[in-house]
Amino acid sequence: MIMDELDFSILSSLQQDGRTSFTVIAEKLNVSVGTVRTRFNRLLEEGVITIVGRVDPVKVGFNCYAHVAVFVRPATHKEAVAKKIAKMPEVSFLAGTSGDYDLEVDVMCRDNDHLQDFINKVAAIEGVHQTKTAIYFKVYKYAQPDVGLVHGDE
């Protein structure tokens, strides 16, 4: 999908306040409400944007955040391990890496016991050789990047 400046402006408006009405966005961007609605629906259909209720994890009971480095042996198991980890509801971020370990996993758990249960489940997956966990004591920022950065807006 090719996106233009108007698409990015609509996304930027929604990032600032996801409840902003199409009418307000249209007025701000000097286009019709129909144009905003059509663009939004296209972005939604193409999977560029999804609609979710983003909660403050601490306020709803997730008091233990952690980064888990996963070492996979043999390397041919990496995709299968990643697919299994991706299905786990505690996982907020999962990526393959080029560093010392194979998979980087960020998780949100209720408490340390919940985290330990999660780690045990990961360790039991065929191909997981080792894990290393770092607990985040305090999260200072939890957000997605501003889409304006794609255009070099800073």
TrEMBL record:
The keyword tRNA-binding does not apply. Pfam families: AsnC_trans_reg, HTH_24. GO terms for cellular component: cytosol. It comes from Chitinophaga parva. GO terms for molecular function: sequence-specific DNA binding. InterPro entries: ArsR-like_HTH, AsnC-type_HTH_dom, Dimeric_a/b-barrel, Tscrpt_reg_AsnC-like, Tscrpt_reg_AsnC/Lrp_C, WH-like_DNA-bd_sf, WH_DNA-bd_sf. GO terms for biological process: regulation of DNA-templated transcription; response to amino acid. It comes from the Bacteria. PANTHER family: LEUCINE-RESPONSIVE REGULATORY PROTEIN, TRANSCRIPTIONAL REGULATOR AZLB. This is AsnC family transcriptional regulator. SUPFAM superfamilies: Dimeric alpha+beta barrel (SSF54909), Winged helix' DNA-binding domain (SSF46785). CDD domains: HTH_ARSR (cd00090). Keywords: DNA-binding, Transcription, Transcription regulation. Residues 3-63 form the HTH asnC-type domain. Coiled coil: none annotated.
